[in-house]
Structures are given as C-alpha cells and as structure tokens.
Amino acid sequence: MFYLSFFADDSQLLASATPSGVADVCHKLECCVSAVHDWCTRRRLQLNPGKTEVIWFGSSATLDSLADTDVTICLDQAVIHPSDCVRDLGVLLDNSLYMRQHIAKVASTCFFHLRRLRKLRRVLDLQSRKRLVCAFILTRIDYCNAVLANLPDTALAPLQQVLHAAPRFVAAIGPRHHVTPTLISLHWLHVRQRITYKLCTMMHSVFYDQAPSYI
Questions:
Q1: What is the pTM of this model?
Q2: How far is CA 79 from CA 75, 89, 95, 185, 200, in A?
Q3: Measured between alpha carbons, how far is 85 from 94 in angstroms, rounded to an integer?
Q4: Percentage of the residues of the chain whose pLDDT score is greater than 90
Q5: How many domains, in total, are found in the chain?
Q6: pLDDT tens per residue across span 41-68
Q7: Which one of 37, 52, 84 terminates a domain?
C-alpha cells in the first residue's frame, strides 16, 4: 500500500514491504515517482532529484538482510541511494527509529541557546529568563516529541540534561543544587512526562473530534 503526502514544497511517498518484496516495492516506487515527476513537469514544477532522499526503516536484522539487495531508486536518470537519516518536517528520522540523531541535534541546539542566554542573565529578571527559556528551549524539546514515546531513558538522557540546565539558568542556582524543587515551582514536567502529556492531549482532541481527520 502506498501513501502520498504533500507538505508545501515537500512530497512524500510511503510504502511497506517484507524483505522478500523489496524489489517489487522499489519498482512500484520508481513508477510512482516517475508519474509524480511527469505531473510536476506538466505544471511547470520541478522535482529535484538532487534533493530527493530514500530511507528504509526496519530492525537491525531486517536492514542487514538488505545489504546484498539493490534498494536504490532511479529518478530522471539519477540514482538515489538510501540514506541512514532523513529530515521530515524538522525531525531527523534514522532507519532504525532510535532517534539518536534527532535527540542529539535538539540537545545541541538547546545548549547553544542556553550559553547565549547566560551572557544576559545579570540584566534579566526571573520572569524574563523564564519566558526566554520557554521560547528558545522548551519549544524545541516539545516539538514533535510524540515520536520519542517508548524510547528508553538512556536515549532521552540528553534532553533531560537540557531540562536540568534550563531551570538552573532561570533560578540562578549552582550545579550542586537539586533541580527538582525548581522544576516543581516552575511547573515544568520531565521529558518523559512531557511526551505523555502531548500524547494525552492529542488523544483527547481525537476523542472529542477536535483533531484533524488524518490523526
């Protein structure tokens, strides 16, 4: 079964297959991509092969079984080789869905902004520091965090480290002070709790018909 999704200038094709049916899926993908390319050409739109990516998701054993299989896709005389990680609406998806690259990128970006904000700490009051952290840090931690559900604590540890550093900046406390009382006073949940809250909010909207139909 194939799914075609459009996000502004981003078109996506999704298909599922067993390891024995990979070759057939590759052929169908090529035909579908070729049809999309022709459709775009007739409307003076360009489907850029240089920006087109292919990724195969699966367990480590399944991906290893594809090592000797041709899983490339041809598009307008260009051969597209599978990637280990792709960006989808700002989320980095790796082929095993461990989300390590995405978590590492978010944590790195958050710490970068925290270092910049620390230079302004002496001229900012408590409420200003809180608003800045909510704008630059918490929004990045919460963005699409539903895809991190059921990941082990070791995988979420970099984000939890960010959530420990952020209240230290807001409350101007040292590294030896316990951060939990500050988190409670700020009403900030831990990373796993934030993920659960996001999922509960989405399911509440679905249950009461307040969510988009595709959800």
A1: 0.84
A2: 6, 24, 19, 55, 42
A3: 4
A4: 49
A5: 2
A6: 888 877 777 778 888 888 888 888 887 7
A7: 84
